[in-house]
Amino acid sequence: MALMNGETVKRKASEDASSSRSKKARTESPSLDDGAVTKHEDSDTEPLITPTPVDFPEKPAVIEEKQGQIEFRVVNNDNSREHNIILTGLKCIFQKQLPKMPKDYIARLVYDKTHLSIAIIKQPLEVVGGITYRPFNSRKFAEIVFCAISSDQQVKGYGAHLMAHLKDYVKATSPIMYFLTYADNYAIGYFKKQGFTKEITLDKSIWMGYIKDYEGGTIMQCSMLPKIRYLQVPRMLQKQKEAVMAKIRAVSKSHIVHPPPAAWKNGVCEIDPMSITAIKESGWSPSMDELSRQPRHGPNYNQLLHLLNDMQNHTAAWPFAQPVNKDEVPDYYEVIKEPMDLSTMEERLQNDLYPRPDDFIKDARLIFDNCRRYNNETTPYAKSANKLEKFMWQQIKNIPEWSHLAE
């Protein structure tokens, strides 16, 4: 899922991985105790009733781990036979699930002794998925290099459960509190669900030059919380949900199920919604229904969002991802009076400020014109502006209803 490419990775040799280890991740999945009744020694005292825990819909991955069908093991290349079998299984899965990656590149990183891997294993030593990562302990972050689940084992919750195991393991065994990864368009959704974001809060001096900038990928960051056990998060959220629902039931009647209208006794027929007492009491009105049916965004939103995502993921987009830092370039805002960047465009798009593609293009051109105005044409910034603008027009030409805008 994490996007990598086959270029040579240059990292500082001073950053060594943790010592060789191969063990089950010490991150047992939580289990619920049954409800119980306890009595005081004083026979006159009423028994204390412990509420029966709320039923929790466990994912297949959690159930299989509890039943011993799968286990999670952290391994690295220490030349032992069993560890090599597991690493080879991971290599084969990564090579199959990441077909755009050179096979020899995947093999080199999986077997690299500075990298660690956490694997999902079915007995006997059948690897069904895993994550390969490189820890930078002195810098308190780790780079997720590869992440994939075997295609015939997906939709079981393996991916989320695997990431939870990794987070708990890394927190328990190292000072690392951050993950960085480059994700392709297909993996961004997965990483967002696991707490990753495109907003990089780690200072560039911490990670720049230590991880590879992969072409076509989006860098994402996950900041772990020290007091959270990530394997317990689903159950914790379920308890919070139950508490919120209980509060809602105390002040609302939305949980009450009403019988069907009497007029439908002999078959469904058209009736006036306001003739139903519960609907009338709820405060509902036909105008509210019309309002709820209105589209959230304009007709061009999805196409513009796709175009913006393509531009953000382009290799030449790095100078324009965020607003120019005034501390780094003190005179920029004295020269440029109408600044613009891709993150601002994303915010404006979400707020429906681009009803037409022309409005979107106007702001995009502002980015490129500002760059060329402030920077000499021979600088990497101006060259990136030219590349990204050319890419934008190519994408617009490929949209039939917008192609005339590129003429």
Automatic annotation (TrEMBL):
Residue stretches making up the Bromo domain: 312-382
Keyword Cell membrane among record annotations: no
EC number in record: 2.3.1.48
Subcellular location: Nucleus
GO terms assigned for molecular function: histone H3 acetyltransferase activity
GO cellular component: histone acetyltransferase complex; nucleus
InterPro entries with a match to the protein in the record: Acyl_CoA_acyltransferase, Bromodomain, Bromodomain-like_sf, Bromodomain_CS, GCN5, GNAT_dom
Key words, A-Z: Activator, Acyltransferase, Bromodomain, Chromatin regulator, Nucleus, Transcription, Transcription regulation, Transferase
Pfam families recorded: Acetyltransf_1 (PF00583), Bromodomain (PF00439)
Keyword set includes Transmembrane: no
Domain N-acetyltransferase, first and last residues per copy: 70-225
Top-level EC class: transferase
CDD domains: Bromo_gcn5_like, NAT_SF
SMART domains according to UniProt: BROMO
Family: Belongs to the acetyltransferase family. GCN5 subfamily.
Name used for this protein in its record: histone acetyltransferase
Protein source organism: Knufia peltigerae
Lineage, opening ranks: Eukaryota, Fungi, Dikarya, Ascomycota, Pezizomycotina
Gene: GCN5
